[in-house]
Amino acid sequence: MTAFDLNHGAVAPVADEVDLVEPPITGNIPRELDGTLLRNGPNPLRGRFEGNDVLSWWPEAAMLHAISFEDGRVASYRNRWARTRRWADVYAPERAPQLPDTNPNVSVLLHAGELLAMAEGGAPLAITTGLDSLGVPRRHEGFGGGMTAHPKVDPLTGELIAFRADWRAPWLRYGVADAQGVQRVDLAIDVPAPSMMHDIAITETRSLLLDLNVGYDFSMLKHGHRMPLRWYDDRQARIGVIPRHGGDVRWFGIEPCFIQHVVNAYDRDEAHVVLDAVRYPSYLRLDASTGRFADNPVAMLWRYVIDTANGIVEEGPLADGGLELPRINESRTGRRYRYLYAVEQPTPVEMRGVVRFDHERGTTLRYAVPAGDQNSEPVFVPRPGGVDEDDGWLLVMVYRAATDTSDLVILDARELHTGPVATVHLPRRVPAGFHGAWVPRTH
Ligand SMILES: [Fe+2]
């Protein structure tokens, strides 16, 4: 893998927790932006990563960041490690027995009135927008054993659709909670071997499970790898289609790939399911001679059309160039949709630039980020009361290499190419991390 230093630049951790009041702003913050942008990611408790590959990065301790908007200004920025047993082992050993043993470092989700920091397969942690850790969720009890960090919420029914992939049997569970967070469906799903599953897609009637070419290889642990995951040429990549509330899973073979993130999915008609995703033609490929990972290629926007009547899957790219961390207007989750927003990947080690793709017109708009800088995923915030799918803003953290600081850039989702409507200048770095969420004040 290309050498990149996890302790310098956009992904580098911070070593402390701070509270900042009213950071400087350029431009005008839309007054309708009333709420908090939360971000989550791995940040070692002692402020330094050990090792320099992705598997030295992903498993580190959860740190959350919150930028709070109010009355056309930014009221505050703060960051906190999640209060887990792992945190207490370093900072407050006497509290360790009372704290949850999980590491919710991937994403943030508001569901059933509960704000959750989400883990990769582990149990969520209830938090507040002020980044207080509340401990084990009061709702979502059915997922206490853990779930994906990317469950989907049906925008009309309020249901939460999730899975749990595990290296211990059962290797795959699928579940649905109702709008109050009570689990209504919980199924073990038979798969031939445990595999790396990070995301799930839903339509109005079905859920789509991704059993792809990255799986577990426990022999890697003996060779110093912290997470025993790698690409397998000989696994059959498959999409599993299951009725939302349970039933037989039908598996459809696809070309070898790995999908970290889906964009969206929908029922095109009774028989056809459309899945849009960012697809890697290979991922975590281990070079047997050196014991090191090859560079991951960039991921491309890819469409699968599954004909459930005759079992045929058509697949192919929707756009050129590397993309990752796709987001949509989540009121369209599981439905036909027109726009997606994503981070551009000019090279496998850069997350730089924001792109908007319009499926209807096949056009793209771009917000360029200068070489050397990097940016996070664009979180779409709908304008309150807005009707059009693209009526809203994109909130993007941009790391400025020259000053080792981060800006929060606010783009009009309809015209991101014209530059920010406002920029919040933080005096320090917000590490690249993984995912974020917008939580309106009214929640
Ligand atoms: Fe993710």
Explain this structure to me?
The model has no long low-confidence stretch (mean pLDDT 95). 2% of the residues lie in helices and 41% in strands. The protein is globular. It has a domain at 19-328. It is mostly beta strands and 443 residues long. Strands 2, 30, 31, 32, 33 and 34 form a 6-stranded antiparallel β-sheet that branches. Strands 1-5-4-3-35 form a 5-stranded antiparallel β-sheet, with no helix packed on it. The protein has a 4-stranded antiparallel β-sheet with strand order 6-7-8-9, with no helix packed on it. It has 2 helices and 35 strands. Fe (ii) ion binds next to loops.
What can be said about the biggest beta sheet? Answer: 6 strands, antiparallel
Number of DSSP-assigned strands:
35
Global shape = globular
Taking all Cα atoms into account, the compactness measure Rg is 21 Å
Fraction of residues in β-strands: 35-45%
Number of distinct helices: 2
User: How would you classify the helix and strand content by structural class?
Assistant: mainly beta
Distance separating the two termini: 43 Å
Uncertain segments: none
Average predicted local confidence, pLDDT: 95
> Which percent range fits the helix content?
under 10%
Cofactors and ligands: fe (ii) ion
In short, what is this structure?
With 443 residues, the protein is mostly beta strands. The chain has two helices and 35 strands. It has a domain at 19-328.
Labels describing this entry:
binds fe (ii) ion; six-stranded antiparallel sheet; five-stranded antiparallel sheet; mainly beta; 443 residues; globular
